[in-house]
Amino acid sequence: MKVWSVDLSDGNWTEVLQEPAQRLRAGGVVAFPTETVYGLGGNAWDDAACRKIFAAKGRPADNPLIVHIADRNELAGVTSAADCLPSPLVRLLDAFWPGPLTIILPAHPQIAPSVRPGGETVGVRMPSHPVARALIRQAGCPLAAPSANSSGRPSPTTAAAVVDDLEGRIDGVIDGGPCDVGLESTVVAVTESSGTVYRPGWITPEQLSAVSGVPFSLDPHLLGAEEAPKAPGMKYRHYAPDARVHVWWGDRPLAVLTAIRRFVMDNPGIRPAYVLPADFPDLPNAVWRWSPDPATPYDEALSHALYHLLREGDTAGATDICIVGTRPSGRGLALMNRLQKASEGRLYRV
Fold first, then answer.
1. For 2-223, which CATH superfamily applies?
2. In sequence order, what DSSP letters do the residues of 56-120 get, joined into one string?
3. Is the pTM of this model over 0.70?
């Protein structure tokens, strides 16, 4: 796999991006950094190119792709509603673009059918990572791009993780260093009177309501209802390492600690890795432990590092990764959503 390294301190990446941009124009697929996770990009107007994304990832064909643009003017090429956006949505774009916010909009007819399987809408976002926007500009087309990992695996936040998952399956990866946010974008739909969160992310429902001036609610799918998914990541097993993931959370740290210790003692054959707050004591039989600097809020540090930690648990040879979660509100909502999926439901409030 070709790796194109970008020096972010330089700022002049035109020459480095020439080859990956050319490969995208020719119908290839290239992984690239964003502020959230690494994306696997293909020309969103080229159905054959977008089908290569699904093939490389082993992604189910009915799971839609998010389209990435570099400038607000490019909305006209991805949505039929570019000239009639609701005013609350415009306020969100003014506040959060470029950034980790995806908007569901009516799809432009030019958008490849495989990007929006069986639907008339498309998720669109403008990443804040400068390399991502520079690549889109040089490619001359919007990029359909899910996370650049094998389907179901933890999303990649480094180029090395992309290589681990997709070696030999894609044209290459642009190495722009580790991602800043570490969780996928917030996905929303907005009307003149209300908004819906289809996938929680770094931008919270409270922020969305405050900026847009309209109330936001969570899609029933996030509340456990059996509704048809409207955004990527809503339907299938996601973010899971080879090790089994278990998550405990609650307002009483001692009760959480006791529950984890009991689980390990009741399962003597496991090799546990631990993801714990810094003030938790050591636990039995650890093959590996991670705790953030106590100066950083635990939920914030865990959000940034989660996917890397899930991969590290596998590298350490853990059979089970035991994680202390957080309250599912604010930014903790996105974190716990990912942990719910990574653990396949092994998430316990104590």
1. DHBP synthase (3.90.870.10)
2. HHT--TTS--EEE-SSGGGGGGTBTTTT---HHHHHHHHHH-SSSEEEEEEBPTTS-GGGSTT-S
3. yes
